[in-house]
Amino acid sequence: MKLRVSIEPSILSADFARLGQQAKEAEDAGVEGIQIDVMDGHFVPNLTFGPGVVKALRKSVNLFLDAHLMIDNPQSFLEEFARSGANRIIVHEEVCKDLPAVLQSIRKLKVEAGVAINPKTPVGAIESVLDIADCVQVMTVHPGFAGQRFMEDQLSKIQRLRREINQRHLKASIVVDGGIDPNTAPLAVRSGAAVLVAGSSVYNPSASVAQNVATLRNSIASTVAAISSD
Ligand code: DX5
Prior knowledge:
single chain, TIM Barrel, 8-stranded parallel beta sheet, binds D-xylitol-5-phosphate
């Protein structure tokens, strides 16, 4: 079966003074979506943006907008993020006391629901929600900052999730976020990733967004072809 791998640049590494334009550059480069890293300075040691930025980006691009909420009490903001034009809301397992209820609330808002797990969180913590999540996002860095090193010890979690999702014939896609570049992207894909979130390897001064996206796609081409022919 032909495998499709999506690339979602994370705007955390973009030039915030030209956010709309930078999102458009990603859209023109043919990416499948962009990820908007929402941080509260509490769940993670960094502060970024809220639903206002999602709303502004909604006007700039037609892309799938993925809001990754790295915040405590995500329940309090779900409605606002859904109204802002996000297509998917991803919450962290570590802050949800009743994860199934939070995912169901997101779905009731008519947007896709995703769950992210930190490097220290085992796959077992989300196994019971795999049937109601549209995606599972495996963090391959400790969330908070762009430009960190990919944690290869997380690959076994991606592999375990892939096996479980396939065995149970579920639809949840596996998103991998953190330290994705042309060297690590093939590892993530070989382990079972269907969506790659990439910040600093897409938005950096050494090449254009289009060139960086093309380099990332080329880096996974042979892995994708090999998996597709299995
Ligand atoms: C981690 C964020 C990531 C990260 C991606 O805190 O959720 O999206 O910034 O950036 P890179 O690709 O540079 O690790």
